[in-house]
Design goal:
The protein is an alpha+beta fold and about 375 residues long. It has 4 domains: about 100 residues, DNA polymerase beta, N-terminal domain-like (DNA polymerase, domain 1, Orthogonal Bundle); about 50 residues, DNA polymerase, domain 1; about 140 residues, Beta Polymerase, domain 2 (2-Layer Sandwich); about 60 residues, DNA polymerase, thumb domain (Beta Polymerase, domain 3, 2-Layer Sandwich). Bound molecules: 8-OXO-2'-deoxyguanosine-5'-triphosphate and manganese (II) ion (2 copies). The site of one manganese (II) ion (MN) has 4 residues, from loops.
Length: about 375
């Protein structure tokens, strides 16, 4: 099987939703380089090139083994002149000069540092960079800088929330959210989504769907869950967005980053969380807790499957699902619904949605595109 590279790789689809991508990445040497380049284009708001590198990285992640020579690239999709040149250089020299240059670039480093703060995106990073600010102490010392509530929490909990969340911590959080939801209604439904539902060992946050079978009830459920967490004294930050979901306004033709379901972006206090090695803040300063990012979304039950598919990710998998639906099927897919020209296609499960799209079912753990 190792030798038959031609047949192995000639069949790779340009769409992530037609590939099976586990957490095992055999081409990390290339995808790490592509991620730096994609980030740099993102910082400079050159969206096309950013996407090209993300798409190429995603395709490489799905391959059963490492790309070993130039010849093997010919039959692979999603690779352009620039991506191929970078790969060629890595094959020949072990690294890319362009990537090396970026990693030591002052602007790239500053943007990377600033955008690592919760609530800081490329636009804010750019604004701060233009003002000549280069470090956190520069920002915090500048009296003319106004930090919004999200950024204030981002700085306050920086050490904790920039540290990866473990599977065990995700399990503890699941119990906490489950308890809070069940205290409100025993019929509450809780589902793990995001990276942990794809089998990842670590995440930057933990994502859940919290809802109830009773239609309409889900809208008030989320504020009540938040209130419960607050009463437990573990709510460190809450950015709540009430539902703006309206079936009458579907389909939404303009692409929107956020869906319209009730949702919240939280920082919770997780008790009894210890860091192996003990070097990090949770132990270092004698605390027995850590701050952790949690996202909750609350769709009405008749749109549950679409919300689950949309929040399971990965982001690249989602992008390609939508792109595939449009380009190959003339359909419109988002986190709310699937729309086929004149009618909505109902779905109770993710499998139903894949079937509507004429796609083989891809398990969540195969969606690490
Ligand atoms: P990680 O946290 O382990 O690093 O990875 P992840 O779980 O895949 O990433 P994520 O940033 O937590 O996003 C999980 C999914 O949530 C992703 O497929 C996109 C989806 N999502 C939406 N809307 C929104 C939104 O408005 N904000 C965020 N943060 N995520 C959203 O569909
Ligand atoms: Mn996540
Ligand atoms: Mn998230």
């Amino acid at each position: 099987a190792e030798g038959s590279t031609h047949t192995l790789m000639a069949t790779v689809s340009q769409y992530a939703c037609q590939r099976r991508t586990t957490t095992e990445n055999n081409n990390k040497i290339f995808t790490d380089a592509f991620e730096v380049l994609a980030e740099s284009y993102e910082f400079n708001e050159i969206e096309g090139r950013c996407l090209a590198f993300r798409r190429a990285a995603s395709m490489l992640k799905s391959l059963p083994r490492a790309v070993r020579c130039l010849g093997e690239m010919q039959d692979l999709p999603c690779l352009g002149e620039h991506t191929k040149a970078v790969m060629e250089e890595i094959l020949q020299c072990g690294c890319s000069f362009e990537v090396k240059k970026l990693l030591s670039d002052e602007r790239y480093q500053t943007f990377k540092l600033f955008t690592s703060v919760f609530g800081v995106g490329p636009k804010t990073a750019d604004k701060w960079h233009r003002r000549g600010l280069r470090s956190f102490s520069d920002i915090l010392a500048d009296r003319s800088i106004h930090l919004n509530r999200m950024q204030q929490s981002g700085f306050l909990h920086y050490g904790d929330i920039s540290r990866a969340v473990s599977k065990a911590e995700a399990r503890s959080l699941r119990n906490i959210i489950d308890g809070a939801a069940r205290a409100i209604t025993p019929a509450a439904i809780l589902a793990l989504t995001g990276g942990f539902s794809r089998g990842k060992e670590f995440g930057h946050d933990v994502d859940f769907i919290v809802t109830t079978p009773e239609l309409g009830r889900e809208e008030s459920l989320l504020p009540e869950v938040i209130d419960g967490l607050k009463k437990q004294g573990i709510l460190l930050y809450c950015d709540y967005h009430a539902s703006t979901f309206d079936v009458a306004k579907l389909p939404i033709r303009r692409f929107e980053a956020m869906d319209h379901f009730a949702k919240c972006f939280l920082i919770l206090r997780l008790e009894g969380s210890r860091v192996e090695g003990g070097l990090n803040s949770a132990e270092g300063d004698g605390r027995g807790w850590r701050a952790v990012r949690v996202d909750l979304v609350s769709p009405p039950m008749d749109h549950y499957a679409f919300a689950l598919l949309g929040w399971t990710g990965s982001r690249q998998f989602e992008r390609d699902l939508r792109r595939f639906a449009g380009a190959k099927r003339g359909m419109l897919l988002d986190n709310h619904a699937l729309y086929d020209k004149t009618k909505f296609l109902a779905a109770e499960t993710e499998k139903d949605i894949f079937a509507h799209l004429g796609l083989e079912y891809i398990e969540p753990w195969q969606r690490n595109a």
